């Protein structure tokens, strides 16, 4: 249930979008030349936590987001398009959609030509790795599956040994889950609805092969989903909506943290505002070069905005690029030499199996995964694999999986001065440990059931796709490029607050951890740096 302050903040977002405004909240904060006490770059999980906690503490805060405000229906009455009929709203300035599954039976039937537009999903293509990210007020929360998994305590201690585990598990994870409105599917609905047949089939096969399956909580409102199934609410997850946005049901950040932040009265959100450079002036203020752009990507206004405290929440790629550029151009030369290092795709590997004719996976499929195979206790190959839907509108007999593997490889970013961008150094070989781990798990299932992989889904003849990821992590690692709370080494009042802090691997989907870590860090920062 939304709280009063969330309803208040969300209606401010909706009203601004309806009026065609890019800025929500006190407008002067985003005027060219303005000085504000705090600026937050980006509006994903880490950024949204920062905005709320700063606003609650009475700190005037400006949130700068390069993507759109997605709170106003288009000509078809919908804010977002679905995955089977993508239009320009689907992707960020592409001429053709770039979906993760690009073919079916080797046929080019998935992707569509689209007009370039600030659509909600971006795919950033490096040489041997592509990264999907959300663009818009709410960041990745607008496009993700909402799976809200708390990491294993032992693995979190391996990845980020400096964290106080008791505090994380007793205080910050429960706080993040409550604010994000995490809930769990009713097992009876799961067991009986045709929309989760795909998941029941895959779970039963995993269990028969001796593997453990677990329900996975989510930020999608499962009461709403039950009403979709009953025909009493407009369909969203049950109408092939997720990667290009959900029109209903999903508790994305614009309905939770960002709405609450706006309701404090101290927070301004400026959409289509991209930060391109960060400098420091003689008084120790951060000076930001910001481009306000329109739907055709035309420059509406170039701005200079200054602040005392600067929070980077532009995501693993966005935060790392801004910091690398600042260090390498000499704007912030004292940034740590480890900025750019410690990056990983959370061991993401996608694969699919072909089921026997007597085991259909269903015409109707919910887009929200609710179950995973948990084989993380297997010392030979630690894998947590979500049972993913493939809602094609036809029977495919496919079981699809996104496996999170314990791939120890790490990539790093370098600054390409000519292109003025950060380039990811990650080779195809570095994906191989993840593929080997995933293969060992799914080979077990195939052996048990006499089934095989599908080779027709990734545009070529591969059974495993590890050349794209949904979970970019690292680039500005906690305790390496920063102190124990995300303060950047070398500078004061400069913070990283997002997935860039987590060094490449987490063992589960990362949104709850990013949120909980930001809550932890902000509490310490507000107590010490804003006293
Ligand atoms: P993020 O949410 O990426 O937000 C960064 C924001 O900063 C974006 O809105 C950018 O547009 C904006 N930005 C970047 N550069 C600039 C700039 N220079 N100036 C202004 N704004 C800028 O950051 N995770 C889960 O836990 N469960 C899932 O089920 C799940 N499914 C996923 C499915 C898909 C298709 C994708 C793409 C991701 C999924 N994820 C999932 C990952 C999750 O969404 C991601 O880890 C978080 O969104 C990262 O949060 P951050 O706060 O780091």
From TrEMBL:
Its EC number is 1.1.3.6, 5.3.3.1. SUPFAM superfamilies: FAD-linked reductases, C-terminal domain, FAD/NAD(P)-binding domain. Pathway: Steroid metabolism; cholesterol degradation. Residues 1-30 form the signal peptide. Pfam families: GMC_oxred_C (PF05199), GMC_oxred_C_1st (PF22500), GMC_oxred_N (PF00732). Its cofactor is FAD. Keywords: Cholesterol metabolism, FAD, Flavoprotein, Isomerase, Lipid metabolism, Oxidoreductase, Signal, Steroid metabolism, Sterol metabolism. This is Cholesterol oxidase. It comes from Glycomyces tritici.
């Amino acid at each position: 249930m939304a709280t009063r302050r969330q309803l208040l903040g969300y209606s401010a977002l909706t009203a601004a979008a309806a009026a065609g405004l890019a800025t929500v909240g006190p407008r002067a904060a985003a005027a060219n030349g303005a000085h504000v006490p705090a600026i937050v770059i980006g509006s994903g999980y880490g950024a949204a936590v920062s905005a709320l906690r700063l606003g609650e503490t009475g700190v005037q805060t400006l949130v700068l987001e390069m993507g759109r405000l997605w709170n106003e229906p288009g000509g078809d009455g919908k804010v977002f398009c679905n995955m089977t009929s993508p239009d320009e709203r689907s992707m960020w300035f592409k001429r053709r959609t770039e979906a993760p599954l690009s073919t079916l039976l080797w046929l080019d039937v998935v992707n569509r030509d689209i007009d370039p537009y600030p659509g909600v999903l971006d795919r950033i293509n490096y040489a041997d790795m592509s990264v999907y990210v959300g663009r818009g007020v709410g960041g990745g929360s607008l496009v993700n599956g909402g799976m809200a998994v708390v990491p294993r305590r032992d693995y979190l201690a391996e990845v980020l040994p400096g964290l106080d585990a008791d505090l994380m598990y007793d205080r910050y994870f429960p706080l993040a889950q409550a604010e994000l409105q995490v809930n769990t599917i009713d097992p009876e609905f799961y067991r009986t609805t045709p929309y989760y047949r795909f998941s029941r089939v895959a779970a039963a096969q995993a269990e028969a092969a001796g593997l453990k399956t677990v329900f996975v909580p989510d930020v999608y409102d499962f009461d709403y989903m039950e009403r979709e199934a009953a025909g009493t609410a407009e369909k969203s997850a049950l109408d092939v909506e997720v990667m290009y946005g959900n029109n209903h049901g999903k508790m994305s950040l614009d309905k939770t943290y960002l709405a609450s932040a706006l309701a404090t009265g101290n927070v301004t959100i400026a959409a289509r505002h991209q930060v391109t450079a960060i400098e420091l002036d003689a008084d120790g203020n951060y000076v930001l070069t910001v481009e306000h752009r329109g739907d055709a990507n035309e420059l509406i206004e170039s701005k200079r905005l200054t602040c005392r405290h600067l929070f980077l929440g532009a995501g693993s790629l966005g935060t790392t690029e801004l910091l690398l550029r600042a260090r390498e151009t000499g704007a912030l030369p004292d940034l740590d030499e480890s900025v750019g290092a410690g990056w990983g795709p959370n061991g993401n590997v996608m694969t699919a199996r072909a089921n026997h004719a007597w085991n259909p996976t269903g015409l109707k499929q919910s887009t929200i995964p609710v179950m995973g195979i948990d084989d993380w206790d297997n010392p030979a190959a630690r894998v947590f694999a979500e049972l993913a839907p493939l809602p094609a509108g036809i029977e495919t007999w496919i079981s699809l999986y996104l496996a999170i593997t314990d791939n120890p490889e790490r990539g790093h970013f370098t600054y390409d001065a000519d292109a003025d961008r950060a380039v990811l150094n990650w080779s195809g070989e570095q994906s191989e440990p993840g593929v080997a781990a995933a293969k060992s798990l799914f080979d077990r299932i195939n052996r048990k059931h006499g089934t095989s992989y599908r080779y027709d889904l990734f545009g070529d003849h591969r059974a495993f796709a590890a050349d794209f990821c949904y979970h970019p992590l690292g680039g500005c690692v906690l305790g390496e490029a920063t102190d124990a709370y995300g303060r950047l080494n070398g500078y004061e009042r400069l913070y990283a607050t997002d997935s860039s802090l987590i060094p490449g691997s987490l063992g589960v989907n990362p949104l709850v951890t990013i949120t909980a870590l930001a809550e932890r860090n902000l509490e310490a920062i507000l107590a010490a740096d804003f006293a």
